[in-house]
Amino acid sequence: MMAVKERSVFRAVNPALLGVVLLLSVFGSVMVHSAVQGMDGGDTMFRRHLMGIAIGLVPLGVAWLIDYRKLQGWVGPLLILDAFLILAPRIPGLGATAKGAQSWLQIGGLRLFQPSEPAKLVTIVVMAAIIAQYRGSIERPRDIFKVLGVLAIPLGLILLQPDLGTGLVFVAITAGMLLIGGMSGRWFLIFALAGALLIGGGLRLDAGLDKAAGHDVFLKDYQMNRLLVFVDPTRDPAGAGYNLEQSKIAIGSGELSGKGLGSGTQGNLNFLPERHTDFIFSVLGEELGFVGGLILLALYLGLLITALGIATSSRDLYGALIVAGVISMWTFQILENVGMTIGLMPITGIPLPFMSFGSSFMVTNMAATGMLLSVWTRRYS
């Protein structure tokens, strides 16, 4: 009887997943501590970061205990919850604006959390239930447009904040889940081409609307400037291109082994903006060099491979799709964040999973880990 119980407990735990998440959280804490040194309220921010990890263990445990299969029939209520989370910052007296987007909840001037972060996970659960209905084959255009119609609700509300970076995460999540859900490659090609044409036309239209209205209609000036800097990195190095320029200097100066923890000049002399959040990888590159960056990417590879193993072990398509959504979310955020610090991706303000400062972001990643554990635990039942 004892042997059976011990085997059951072992099956419920995925030591590889928990181990890599623990290592990433410790690594992130070390880098955040180094990044906030010399900043006003740096010690307070570091304590908040550690508190975010501690608080995140609660939703991790709750998501782990919940049988994910019971959520499959709750598409309607979860979609309403998704919309409410994204709209919550627009409630008079509760919303707060940061980095140009009204996406935070606050009470009495104290910013609490960013509801769009947990909304990502609600969207994953909803999209998994919708896509699972097609049993691994999505060929008819009307079925594809049904899935995209469901995505349009949270995506449209996110873009109204406006939060382009988070909106792109929602798109990446859906793309990954459609791939696992059985949408053929030709449809991906069609939608990729259509998306490129839509973006190009939208940028031209936005510029015209801004000129006619006399103010920003959709994209803000800083968002448009970031896209222009991505196309031409030498554009406005003292203005819109300043962040990218300083990030490249920081990473390049780290060379092979870095300058040492706490010894990065770009960060310590305040040349590198948002160094504890969006540009935490730049701090790592300067202080720990190429070796430190390689170690981090190896940990991320381990995280994604472990998650992929959980997806393939799932006994149903719904569970595999939930894991695919989390993998897509993490993969896009890693590629976008690291890419934007070295000029390979446009700067969008997307943080780095388990590394960047931010309690809402950390709690969401911990909850996502719990969702993966929920699928893993129930692979035999």
What does this structure look like?
With 381 residues, the protein is mainly alpha-helical. The longest helix has 34 residues, at 280-313. It has a 3-stranded antiparallel β-sheet, with no helix packed on it. The chain has one domain (16-377). The protein has helices at residues 2-12, 15-36, 42-65, 75-87, 116-132, 141-159, 164-181, 185-213, 221-231, 242-254, 265-268, 280-313, 317-341, 359-377, and strands at residues 95-98, 101-107, 110-113. Helices cover 68% and strands 4% of the residues. The model is unreliable at 1-7 (pLDDT under 50).
* Neighbour order of strands in the largest sheet: 1-2-3
Order of helices and strands: HHHHEEEHHHHHHHHHH
Question: Segments where pLDDT lies below 50 for 5+ residues?
Answer: 1-7
Please describe the biggest sheet, giving its number of strands, its sense, and whether it closes into a barrel: 3 strands, antiparallel
What's the number of extended β-strand segments?
3
Distance between the termini: 19 Å
Strand-residue proportion: under 5%
Mean pLDDT: 84
Q: Which class of secondary structure composition applies to the elements?
A: mainly alpha
Which oligomerization state do the chains in this entry correspond to? single chain
Number of helices: 14
Instruction: Tell the overall outline.
Output: globular
Tally of structural domains: 1
As a whole number of angstroms, the C-alpha radius of gyration is 21 Å
Helix content: 55-70%
SSE arrangement:
Layout: H1 2-12, H2 15-36, H3 42-65, H4 75-87, E1 95-98, E2 101-107, E3 110-113, H5 116-132, H6 141-159, H7 164-181, H8 185-213, H9 221-231, H10 242-254, H11 265-268, H12 280-313, H13 317-341, H14 359-377
Antiparallel strand pairs: 1-2, 2-3
